[in-house]
Amino acid sequence: MALCRPANEWMRHSGRRCEAERMQLLTDGVYRLQNATGANAYLVDTGSGSVIVDTGTPGGATKLLSELRDARDLPPVTDIVLTHYDPDHAGAAAALQRETGARVWMGRADAAVLRGEAPAPTRFRRFLGRIYPGTEVPADLHEIPGTGETEIVQGVVAIPAPGHTDGHVVVEARGVVFAGDAVRVSKGRLVQMPWFLISDKQKALATADLIASRRPRLVCPGHGAPGRIDG
């Protein structure tokens, strides 16, 4: 089912929101979805398809699907990449998959937690699991290995980025890094999430260095506003 139909010209102005469409153009071919709940969700237009990065909580699925249907001049959604298993990022993925038929991708270690095959590694994450029990697992979940880069589609790669969770990944496309909860952006700097949300501090710091080394023209985090980094 193709959810992205021809586009309103208002979307062609960077950063300007269209009241009817709501989707926000951040830079060429990169959009921030406005109706995801809990965490940011993004869409990359690859020319031949659209790739969604993160989906927000289950409660936002209906409005998110409506936003995608109202978007015009965008190709159908072919892939959904989940940066990690937290329900505010992965919660609506199964619903979106049913409507789009998209492949869903997640880091291998995080996929095991999402499926209930491995416990969450920290006390706080186990607490979150009790608050948001039983996040629906997308069908035929594609696992991203913990080493090397994985090409999702041409021009879109997933890169292992552990620290926040063991199987966390970031996504790079069009010179933009979609960082999930690996980092936030503040005053031109990459900053860490609060300590109690981080599974491995040293790995989290190494991931921040990795993101900076890619020299992205824009960093799109899971929480907070997208931004550029200095240097």
Keywords:
single chain, 231 residues, alpha/beta, 7-stranded mixed sheet, 5-stranded mixed sheet, 6 helices, 22% helix, globular, disordered N terminus
Rounded to an integer in angstroms, the radius of gyration calculated over CA atoms is 16 Å
**Which regions contain 5 or more consecutive residues with pLDDT less than 50?**
1-21
User: SS-based structural class?
Assistant: alpha/beta
Q: Strands of the biggest beta sheet: in what spatial order?
A: 1-2-3-4-5-6-7
Instruction: Tally the beta strands.
Output: 14
Biggest sheet features: 7 strands, mixed
- The fraction of residues assigned to DSSP E strands is 25-35%
User: What would you call the shape?
Assistant: globular
Question: What is the end-to-end distance?
Answer: 43 Å
How would you state the average pLDDT, rounded? 88
Count of DSSP H/I helices: 6
Give the topology string: H per helix, E per strand. EEEEHEHHEHHEEEEEEEHE
Helix content: 10-25%
Describe the 3D structure.
The protein contains six helices and 14 strands. It has helices at 61-70, 87-90, 93-100, 108-114, 123-131, 201-213; strands at residues 24-27, 30-33, 41-45, 50-53, 77-82, 103-107, 142-144, 150-153, 156-160, 169-173, 176-180, 184-186, 189-191, 218-221. The chain has a seven-stranded mixed β-sheet. The protein has a five-stranded mixed β-sheet with strand order 8-9-10-11-14, with no helix packed on it. Strands 12-13 form a two-stranded antiparallel ribbon. The longest helix is centred in the last third of the chain and has 13 residues, at 201-213.
